[in-house]
Write a structure and sequence with these properties.
Chain lengths: 256, 525
């Protein structure tokens, strides 16, 4: 009969095997790594389980710890014991030292990306009711879209990108990063009035929960006319193929 | 149990599946055979549609580079009506580029310009169609030649060394690209269309229009950059012809220049200032700067307020910080091709219209924010003032200078004397790089205008830079968004004591165990 693997080695192999399987399945095969805190918790239960199984009877317990006892008590193993006894405290000391090193991490900045718009707001020197504000689909649609494209390429593409994907030439230097209009979670979820408000009053016009102090969005009412902003909104929806959300209940959603 | 009908159906389904599979294989085979023929011919008509939707905004409907976006772009969009291409692998003496060259530029884009890569939006066939349309803007024969790469010489220390020699020999490359490759060979360069051009800063490979793979660099050295003053090094008329081998060495050397610690690492948003014993450094040359971890940030043009600025030249700034018991010092380092000293004849000749001093500014909140709320990232706001530390390069008549300002918004900037806050600054320019040290006491000046530094707290910090030879002054400049400055508290001895404790505990345990075992042994045996 082949030599049996010692119980201690079995236990260690089982634990290492399960750990390896976790990493293989989640990190490599699924490409979704387990958070380390979760993995630590799982491994705690695995170790506890293995310990319980391997110490189920008195005999199995004795068999499990036999190699360790032999290491300490068998005079022939003294050299190995000395090595193990020297390495253990050194390793433990190193981990303690490294673990206690202060490393202060930068604060996480939470901000609301689509803050609730005010019901009415002053832009271009007059008051707009955002709940009713809607631009009817104009007749000269294609021409207005083209004019909007011109406004976009002269002003917006530097950050929001030629492809409207939020990755313009200067996007990398900004925080928060410019919004991607191609994303289904941005303009497709918003009304035109929201866009009009965000464009006209820019970063400084954001409510406090959206961190107006870090937004690089200019206050466009200083550079663009009302008409130009409407045109650029038409362009944004036309180019991306998204449709704005509408206020009215019986709105036509079939084009989504 | 399956009935006869079921069996028949199953057999039929299998048969149908087999036919479908055969058809698929046939299609793939035919497709593969037909592919080269396809590849030759993009569809001009489809290409024109895509071009109108995606490209005309910058390159113009007629392909003349005069689209509505063109005016604010540096470098300007390509004018296709000449058939002149900067990045190409056709012969140096031929007009036009190979189809592969055009496809590559459209697919991958051109780093350092406004041209994005279109591969996520356009299919390979779309890109071929656009390419076909682009070549209709000018009647040209298809290029017949291709760059001869010979046998590639792999990069090695010797090859790089030889390349360096060739680079510097007779000022061959360094004449324009500078001794350190930072593009600071002081010359006023224009391309064929009259646009200002600057030699590439070879230490910033992320701005190379093609990649910094030595093969791409080899192609640039071979062909030059058509339409610019970068010459071809194979032209028979040139007295500076280079062999294939020599070009590989230079390519390997140039590729090696990009390995600096000055690359932007997006995860590094914190400037960690280490604590020194004694005085902080006051000059850029001080060896102690090596103890400080550098952080590099992108500089973006000020496109946001007042007079906007669309044509920047500075693109990154690298910061190091150190502090002591009394003072804090920052080392600001940025590549600038031109040392802009108004009054200096040579500098004025290089400068675009009117020369101004080179400048850099550090922006800090007057009061360190307790919560999330910070001052507005450009010049603060009424409720949250910022303090600005400025350094200017000086003129032929005045020395370099430091100045302070407190800003409560872009329009509300009050200048103050540097002495009022104890600020000093010292700059040095060498081979295309400014290095400026700013020093200030940790607590100085007026609490309503000057920041009081504190250890272990995250302090918002931002930077602005002006290249005086690029028409940059006042609101025309580049800037960063808010990052963090952290005065890292000294480590202290706690971790060391804890480690020692753990060590002794385990050693003690081991000793006890070993003794107990020895004591037990005689009885057991």
């Amino acid at each position: 009969m082949a030599r049996r693997i010692p119980r201690l080695a079995q236990a260690v192999l089982t634990i290492v095997g399960i750990y390896g399987a976790f990493r293989l399945v989640f990190d490599v095969l699924l490409g979704q790594p387990i958070p380390s805190s979760l993995l630590t918790m799982y491994m705690f239960f695995v170790v506890a389980g293995v310990y319980m199984v391997f110490t189920f009877t008195e005999e199995s317990t004795r068999e499990l710890v036999a190699p360790i006892r032999a290491l300490v008590e068998d005079p022939r193993r003294k050299p190995i014991r000395n090595v193990v006894f020297a390495l253990t405290p050194l390793l433990a000391a190193w981990f303690t030292y490294a673990g206690l090193q202060p490393r202060i991490e930068a604060p996480v900045e939470l901000r609301s990306i689509h803050p609730a718009p005010p019901s009415s707001v002053k832009m271009f020197g007059k008051r707009f009711d955002l709940l009713k504000l809607e631009k009817e689909e104009p007749k000269k649609f294609r021409q207005l879209v083209a004019e909007g494209a011109k406004v976009y390429v002269e002003n917006c593409h530097f950050c929001h990108g030629d492809k409207l994907d939020g990755r313009g030439p200067y996007a990398e230097g900004l925080n928060p990063v410019p919004m991607s209009f191609q994303d289904v979670g941005t303009i497709a979820q918003l009304q035109e009035s929201f866009l009009f408000w965000r464009i006209a009053t820019g970063g400084p016009g954001l409510p406090a929960d959206a961190a107006p102090w870090i937004s690089s969005m200019p206050v466009w009412e200083t550079f663009l006319s009302e008409e130009e902003i409407w045109k650029v909104i038409l362009f944004l929806y036309d180019y991306t193929g998204h449709r704005p959300r509408l206020w009215s209940e019986n709105a036509d959603h079939s084009k989504h | 149990m399956p009935t006869t009908r079921n069996i028949d159906e199953a057999a039929m389904r299998r048969g149908a599946r087999a036919i479908t599979q055969l058809a698929t294989i046939a299609l793939i085979v035919c497709g593969a055979l037909a592919a080269p023929a396809f590849a030759q011919s993009g569809d001009k008509v489809k290409g024109a549609e895509i071009y109108a939707q995606r490209c005309a905004w910058c390159h113009g409907e007629k392909g003349d580079g005069q689209g509505p976006g063109a005016a604010r772009l540096v470098p300007p969009p390509r004018d296709f009506t000449f058939g002149l291409y900067k990045i190409k692998s056709s012969g140096f003496d031929e007009l036009g580029a190979r189809e592969d060259d055009l496809i590559r530029m459209i697919r991958d884009g051109m780093p350092g310009t406004s041209m994005p890569g279109w591969k996520d939006v356009l299919s390979e066939q779309d890109i071929r169609d656009v390419t076909a349309h682009i070549t209709t803007f000018v009647e040209l024969d298809k290029p017949k030649k291709q760059v001869d790469y010979g046998t590639r010489i792999a990069t090695s220390a010797e090859s790089i060394e030889q390349g360096k020699k060739l680079f510097l020999e007779g000022d061959r490359c360094s004449e324009c690209h500078g001794k350190e490759g930072k593009g600071d060979g002081i010359k006023s360069l224009k391309d064929d269309a009259g646009f200002r051009t600057w030699p590439r800063n070879l230490t910033k490979p992320w701005t190379f229009r093609a990649s910094n793979d030595p093969k791409d660099i080899f192609a640039r050295i071979t062909n030059g950059i058509p339409g610019t003053q970068m010459p071809s090094f194979v032209e028979p008329a040139s007295k500076d012809k280079l062999t294939i081998e020599q070009r590989w060495h230079i390519a390997n050397y140039v590729a090696s220049l990009g390995k600096t610690g000055m690359r932007v690492r997006p995860e590094r948003t914190v400037i960690r200032a280490a604590k020194l014993e004694g005085e902080v450094p006051t000059t850029p040359e001080d060896a102690r700067w090596k103890q400080a971890e550098p952080a590099t940030f992108f500089l973006v043009p000020q496109l946001i307020a007042k007079e906007r600025f669309f044509t920047p030249s500075n693109d990154t700034v690298t910061i190091r910080a150190l502090y002591g018991d009394k003072d804090i010092a920052l080392l600001l380092e940025w590549d600038d091709r031109t040392k802009s000293i108004p009054g200096d004849e040579r500098a004025e000749k290089i400068a675009d219209p009117e020369i101004a001093e080179d400048r850099i500014a550090v922006q800090l909140p007057v009061e360190i924010p307790k919560g999330m709320e910070k001052p507005y990232f450009i010049m603060g706001d009424a409720a949250h003032p910022v303090t600005l530390w400025q350094w200017s390069s000086g003129t032929t008549k005045t020395a370099e200078s430091a100045a302070l300002a407190v800003a409560r918004g872009i329009e509300k900037v009050e200048a103050r004397a540097a002495a009022a806050g104890g600020l000093t600054a010292k700059g040095a320019y060498r081979d295309g790089t400014w290095r400026v040290v700013m020093k200030r006491p940790l607590a100085a000046g007026d609490p309503k205008d000057d920041i009081r530094f504190a250890e272990g707290v995250f302090i918002p910090i931002a930077f602005s830079a002006w290249d005086g030879s690029n028409g940059e002054k006042e609101s025309r400049h580049t800037l960063t968004t808010w990052y963090w400055l952290l005065l890292e508290p000294p480590r202290g001895n706690r971790p060391l004591f804890a480690a020692l404790g753990v060590f002794l505990l385990i050693v003690g345990g081991e000793a006890w165990w070993a003794r107990a075992a020895t004591a037990r042994r005689p009885r057991e045996s």
